[in-house]
Amino acid sequence: MNAVVTSRTPMRDNTSGVGTLLRFALWRERLSLPCWLLGVGALVAFQSLGSQRFYDTPQKLAQLRETIGASAATVAMGGPTRLLDTIGGEIVFEIFAYLAIVVALMNMFLVGRHTRSDEETGRAELLRSARVGRWAPTIASLALAGLADIAVALAVFAAAVGTGLPVAGSLLLGVVTAGVGITFAAVTAVAAQVFENPRSVYGAVGLALAAAYVARAVGDVGNGVASWTSPIGWGQRSYPYAGDRWWTVLLFAAATATLTAVAFLLLDRRDFGAGLFGYATGRPNASWALRSPLGLAWRLQRGSLAGWTVGVFALGAAYGSFADSIEDFLTDNPEIAAYLPGGATRAVDSYLSLTVSIIALLSAAFGITSVLRARGEETAGRAEPILAAPVSRAHWLTSHLAVAVVGGGFVLACGGFGVGLSYGLTIADAVQPLRMTGVALVYLPAVWSIVAIATVCCGWFPKAAVPLAWTVFAYCAVALLFTAAFDLPDWFDEASPFTHTPKAPLESVTAAPLLLVTAIAAAGLGVGFAGFRRRDTGF
């Protein structure tokens, strides 16, 4: 077996070609990596400027601490209240969990793409035909992640210091953010040895990330013990700007070293191209549900749909649990009202409108992943055998888009139901789940519009479809969440479909804007179909 031979291979042979692979990986990531770094730095800088403008006196910070400390839901979403002792800590409280998730995902994609994805597509086999050692791809991917995390630390440090925060706390914030990243890079390296396909790797790392977030939340609401089982909790409990606890960095180093050792141990015990857990043996005959392109598309995407549904429902439930407290929160922090669509006059509906908009944005993200899955089937060569059968291009693409369109609506409805369920429980109103589900579906045309844009990208700009689709998503996110906070010009958000969607339940719902956005979405789908029909597949 391959493992027996490689375990006796000299270290020099196992690691040959690392430098070349690392340079090649840096070239492949020359566009995406700067985008990640720019996003991380911008998030820190904008939050820092906004928080320093809001809480410019000790009294305002004390009011915030008193209000947030009384809300378990806010603590669960933010972190330990000790961070609120200083303005820098308040910034960490607001964004660190999200910052950690972004950096963890960046590392997951970096390591997964250069290890398991390359093995699945056969690219790694081509590289291994040259003088490339067995360990070299994994070492190069971890080195790439390490370099990216160093750049993340520098970006966070520069953004924090550049906006006036203390140097020592900024340095610690950058280091622990990078620590979360490199820890999840090592987690991905382990998962890449265990599972045989990238989707399982990403699913396993995603579950680990969700578990880390939940453990941190449980610890922050409880006695804090659970937070020490989470890398996100380690970062928050280093208390940048509120004590600067540096020894927590050792936890990241120990976890990364242990996980990396496990990854290489497993790497020597599996066959090249395989995982410890291989594909399950299928049934001798396909079920009737797989006798159509739609059945196949559903089979390929049902796991992703289930994951997004559960995640968005949980987020909606968390948002809804805080809705009844929003008026008290605004009483202590009236400046926040400026960032709610309707201000403080109808605080609860204004808050619900904002939270459902965020859920709609996440539902659109599922739609993008679903459309891009069709593109992934193309580039992997799995679409060709299907299209060689009596299946038209339109039929094949429609099958995947059906999952994106219907699945996006389902995720949106479940998120709205989650908001209504938790809000209804807090105010003892059984009608709220159905009401908020209906409210959420008002945003469905906007979700479809983003799906249509992703389809246009796949149809006409297939090689750039992934970055283009996610750039559109990032623009919509900034337009929805930060136009007011960052004092962006009024015209900035005009191209976002969410701008032209009634802000239910704050605003009355009329048919005209919904029909207009739906018509634009339908036109976009048609343009995307036209592009797909005229080009070669797989390119």
TrEMBL record:
The chain crosses the membrane at residues 31-50, 91-111, 132-161, 167-189, 201-219, 246-267, 305-322, 351-372, 401-428, 440-461, 468-488, 508-532. Keywords: Membrane, Transmembrane, Transmembrane helix. This is ABC-2 type transport system permease protein. The lineage of its organism: Bacteria, Bacillati, Actinomycetota, Actinomycetes, Mycobacteriales.
